[in-house]
UniProtKB/TrEMBL annotation, chain A:
Residues 1-30 are annotated as: Disordered. It comes from the Bacteria. Residues 13-24 have a biased composition (Pro residues). PANTHER family: BLL4140 PROTEIN, DIACETYLCHITOBIOSE UPTAKE SYSTEM PERMEASE PROTEIN DASB. The lineage of its organism: Bacteria, Bacillati, Actinomycetota, Actinomycetes, Streptosporangiales. The chain crosses the membrane at residues 37-56, 98-124, 131-158, 191-217, 238-261, 300-322. This is Sugar ABC transporter permease.
TrEMBL record, chain B:
Residues 95-293 form the ABC transmembrane type-1 domain. This is Carbohydrate ABC transporter permease. It comes from Streptomonospora wellingtoniae. It is a multi-pass membrane protein. InterPro entries: BP-dep_ABC_trans_perm, MetI-like, MetI-like_sf. Belongs to the binding-protein-dependent transport system permease family.
Length: 332, 308
């Protein structure tokens, strides 16, 4: 579908627009000029008010002392605080730990998802059709599960004493996995909790990568692989010399999307951590929410400052995404 | 399994004979084993959710965990649907809230994004490039980062106008509509662009007004795209959590399904049968739609990255 759209779009540009800047006809012009603006106006207004304006406000909030008290009736306006939030963040060791954990956890999620997704995509391409479809339908189930349901299931799977994973590890011989698994609580320490979190995220996101890579693989002419095989390339070399260069734009796009989706993970952590008490298992989005809605008093200024840090990270990745999209002519 | 698939290929494809047949068989067995492992990994948590939902309480609490339920029971579903996830509020009310806010935002989003998509695909205007780039950037900035500012804005708006936006469904309906707009506009834009312009021009020559052209020519051809984009928006809104969590606060009778589930988990964290039954009910509609829309979803998200 996207391909046909692409083809048509590429044909349209040469046709001069009726409402171009050079178009003289005054009568026609008056009628056709406002149309596109009228059409985008409703969407633009709602986007500007609900999503764009808050970006500006987020920056403003982060530069002022702004707590829930400023929302009370007749409360004074928030005061400029001379970058106090940022200065506090810079010297706050907890913040640096959370930032580091966010980056590490995100890199692990993205890395495992991309590698597993690509391998599964290649695998699906080589399986017989009915088996490939069966596996794909199975993967759809994982992909379709809402974040809340998925997190609850994994919390249940890894539950101390009764969770299936704990029971299974307990039943395995001790020399293999060690003992004491039955009562092991995965949700107390950062390493084990993030391990479960990464598993949930990978479980939910690898199907998208796999299906996209499969679609990409189908678009590569078979002759290229034949030629590589004649030249004596094995599976590994033909991946790096044929598949990867051919699918480079796709991989770049998937990587960007995955990074952005994994940086913002909130719901899964909210269920797995199940409270705001243990600061060592926070990630950035969790910290933002905690500052804004769970701390007492709710500190909107501080939460916004953390949100600015997160947004800057995401915009850096988005800049790369925009470059890909502009190169592919998506903005034309 | 491997013997039957291996046997017929050997005479049919003489080229294969150059390699050792045993090696081919082993490799094929390996591929199928890997495929089976991927299938199990994907399906197992879903299976476990459903299996737990049908297990009697005694079996869930038993130390002797079994992979397959010994007896099946509907007691958890009965408890979730006829009992109360949150004291004083029935399951149907959460379902109604979820449906209302989801369908409302999907309908509003469909109209807004169709209009914008027609503008972007059919007209060349000065702000066009800027608008597309704005959509791409906005699509990336997460609600998790904006949530504080969005909340404050709605709170101020509510205080200034007296219109209630927090603690009821109207605020989250507006936010959900806005959040899925960038993606649905970009998806629809491709569908609109794929409709040949000549078709519309021919109709116009035959005397059809712009409105007739829109309903009679464009709409039927864009309809599949509109369905795909709407389902995408539906899934986004149906699953959304953090905005509902912030906006609805303690107004439990306004909770959407995901929120009621998280609330129930917070209070009755040991009732795994009911939690899994409710999770199953939450998951079912999404799965149905997902299987339906899956292929378009991939092409919508990766847009032009896959080219033949």
């Amino acid at each position: 579908m996207a391909q046909t759209a692409e083809a048509v779009r590429e044909q349209t540009p040469p046709e001069p627009p009726p409402a171009g800047p050079g178009g003289p006809g005054p009568g026609r012009r008056r009628r056709s000029v406002p149309t596109p603006y009228l059409l985008i106006a409703p969407a633009l207004v709602i986007l500007a008010l609900v999503l764009v304006w808050p970006v500006v406000q987020m920056v403003w909030n982060s530069l002022h002392s702004y707590t829930i008290r400023n929302l009370l009736p007749n409360a004074p306006a928030p005061e400029w605080n001379d970058f106090a939030h940022y200065r506090r963040l810079l010297s706050d060791r907890e913040f640096w730990t959370i930032l580091r954990n966010t980056v590490v956890v995100c890199v692990l999620m993205v890395g495992v998802t991309m590698v597993l997704g690509t391998l599964v995509g290649i695998l699906l391409h080589r399986l017989s059709r009915w088996f490939s479809v069966t596996v794909s339908v199975g993967m759809m189930l994982a992909w379709a599960t809402p974040a809340i349901s998925a997190s609850l299931v994994f919390r249940w799977l890894f539950l101390p004493e009764r969770g299936l994973v704990n029971v299974a590890l307990d039943r395995l011989p001790d020399w293999l996995v060690g003992s004491g698994w039955l009562n092991y609580n995965w949700f107390l320490e950062p390493v084990s909790l993030f391990g479960v979190l990464i598993t949930v995220i990978v479980w939910q996101s690898f199907p998208f990568i796999a299906v996209s890579v499969l679609a990409g693989l189908k678009s590569i002419p078979h002759e290229l692989y034949e030629a590589a095989r004649v030249d004596g390339a094995g599976g590994w070399r033909s991946f790096w010399n044929v598949t990867f260069p051919m699918l480079r734009p796709l991989f770049a796009l998937l990587l960007v999307l995955q990074i952005i989706w994994d940086l913002r993970v909130f719901t899964q952590l909210y269920i797995l951590a199940n409270s705001f008490q243990n600061k060592s298992v926070y990630l950035l989005s969790y910290y933002i929410y905690q500052q804004g809605f769970s701390a007492s008093p709710a500190n909107y200024g501080m939460g916004s400052a953390i949100a600015v840090v997160m947004t800057v990270m995401i915009l850096a990745v988005t800049a790369y995404y925009l470059r890909i999209m502009i190169r592919q002519g998506e903005t034309r | 399994m491997t013997a039957t698939t291996g046997a017929p290929t050997a005479p049919a494809a003489p080229r294969r004979r150059r390699r050792a047949p045993a090696g081919v068989l082993v490799r094929r067995a390996g591929l199928y084993a890997a495929g089976a492992a991927v299938f199990l990994f994907s399906v197992f948590p879903v299976y476990w959710m459903v299996a737990t939902a049908f297990k009697p309480v005694g079996e869930i609490f038993s130390k002797d965990t079994r992979l397959f339920p010994g007896t099946l029971t509907l007691e958890h579903f009965d408890r979730v649907i006829n009992g109360q996830l949150i004291p004083g509020v029935r399951f149907w009310e959460f379902l109604a809230n979820s449906l209302m806010v989801t369908l409302g935002s999907v309908a509003a989003g469909a109209v807004l994004s169709l209009l914008a998509a027609v503008a972007v695909a059919r007209f060349r205007f000065r702000m066009r490039g800027a608008f597309i780039i704005l959509l791409m950037v906005i699509q990336m900035v997460p609600a998790e980062a904006l949530i504080i500012s969005i909340f404050i804005n709605f709170r101020r708006f509510q205080d200034a106008t007296g219109m209630q936006m927090l603690g009821n469904l109207s605020g989250i309906l507006v936010v959900y509509t806005a959040v899925s707009l960038p993606i649905t506009i970009m998806m629809l834009r491709g569908f609109v662009a794929a409709v040949p312009k000549e078709l519309e021009e021919a109709a116009a020559i035959d005397g059809a007004g712009p409105w007739t052209v829109f309903w009679r020519i464009l709409m039927p051809l864009v309809a599949p795209g509109l369905v795909a984009a709407s389902i995408f928006a539906f899934i986004t809104a149906w699953n959304e959590f953090i905005v509902a969590l912030t906006f609805l606060g303690r107004s439990t009778e306004e909770y959407t399904l995901p929120l009621s589930l998280s609330y129930y988990f917070g209070r009755f964290g040991t009732e795994w049968g009911s939690i899994m039954a409710a999770s199953t009910l939450l998951t079912l509609p999404v799965m149905a739609f997902f299987l339906f829309v899956q292929r378009r979803m991939v092409s919508g998200l990766t847009m032009g990255a896959v080219k033949g």
